[in-house]
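Lab notebook, bench 4. The sequencing result for the construct came back, and we need a structural model before the next group meeting so we can plan mutations. Quick request posted to the team channel:

Model the 3D structure of this chain.
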Amino acid sequence: MYSELIEKLNPKPTFNLNWYKNEDIYSDGPIEDTIIKLIAENQPEDYSDAILNHLSWPTYYYLTHIRKNILNWYPFAEDSSVLEIGCGLGAITNMLCDRCRDVTAVELSKRRATAALLRCRERDNLEIIVGNLNDIKFEKKFDYITLIGVLEYQGAFANTDTPYLDFLVEIKKLLKPNGKLLLGIENKYGLKYWCGAVEDHTGVPFEGMNQYTLSNKKIRTFSRKELEEMVKDSGFKNAFFYYPMPDYKLPTVVYSQEYLPQNANMQNLRPYYIPNNSTLVADEMAIYQDVIENNTFEFFANSFLVECSDAEDVGKVTFSCFGTERQKKYQIATVFTEDGTVEKIPLHKTEGAEHIQQIVKNSAALVKAGRDVLPVTVQDGKLICEYVKGELLEDRVLSIYREKDTLGAYQLMDKVYQEILSSSEQVNAENNIFYTLELDREREVGDYGPILRIGYLDMTLRNAFYVNEKIQWFDQEWILEYVPAGYIMYRTITSLYQMYPWVEKVIPLEEIGQRYGLMSAWKKYEWMENLFSHMVLDTSFAIQSQAFRGVDREACLRNIKKLIGME
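Done. Here's the predicted structure in token form:
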């Protein structure tokens, strides 16, 4: 039924049906036809507007670019071959083709494989094989094998006593010596499941912790210890665990066994739930603080990504997070490496190089202005700097707030404001960007205070270290010309108060705003912030992701009342 589409679009990949047995055992039903139509109607990986115009959980899940975050940070060798087992509808296949010399993708379902074919239609380094992996005879071995969301189904496709272990044993045979298996799977003890989220495969809440005895489906996931033992028993000498959050399906941050979250403010974490709140009884985000403080994060992490190899060079990357909510030219992955460096990697090489260079220019200009800035260089299109273990300025401010030391808080915030004032020369008030953009047609000169020739918008508490009572800045991505110093201070304060609402009880927002002369222009600063957000963010993506984000606490309360017979 897709022959006309294939003929019309004339895809470049090889589509191998030699192992196909004319049956699609695995399918998500007619929604896949809708997805294939959207793929065919749009340019590869340019699906943001298509998702928004056909907004539903399946279209968002199958087509959102967040799916690539599971591996778009991984240091694949460019001259390498990859076997992608279970490519599905091609969510990460294009990315693999970008990073590696050649990709072989295997998919059991012809319909799903067709989606991947059309999605990757411009790739000439891709072969898609339709069929059961257990039947296929490969003519070569691979540098990497990806097994993302596949292992858990092997109980339904194999008739052995240890189907999951046996599957890993067979996969290892397809790797070159010292090749690497990248295995992604849910944690059966993931915190979201304790909070009542339905098991991803069976649809039954609390299925994993009941050891998969509540349904008849031959599908299961594993605890960290179970998975680690299985990997070792299959013959791999080394296993390095990553923890994609909120899970491996839609990760926005990836921790590792060598870099675990330090507090509940997990950088860039965007929790989501499939639109089904009928069984939720708790908000997982409210629990992470205790989980982390009790050193149990690795047990409760929602998902695992395991790098398996006989080689010892696993775990080269220890942490990554992503700016995937931005427009393409601004999308960056931040990566921590085992050798003590931090890398800023553009996720779209052709479009992100200019932004990387701008960060370097901003850092140099701040240094010239006499500010202390973490040194950066550019290598192979990546921004490189040293990893610093110093205390974040934000953490120092928060510790002072927790002590309810208002004087100490003001003293430190005064120091931040002085840093902002000293970051650039001041210009005449008539040059104010609020006038040139006509955000203030009345030209209320007294509302704004000092106007900076260059305003460094990222002089916020999270973008600085505080060591020996000195501030050292980093990640200075954004600048605006002729901007009020007050607007940058507004961004500094509001980012703190929005992320940590409890600080309002220590120093009210209006009080700290008045101290720095911000209140008369507060509304105008809000307008500017909205304008800036539209300039940087992919607004279509923001609307999509917001539809599936967060937890309905009232639903949790209703479900608890049902459990105790109050409803």
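The chain has a mean pLDDT of 93.
Will bring this to the meeting.
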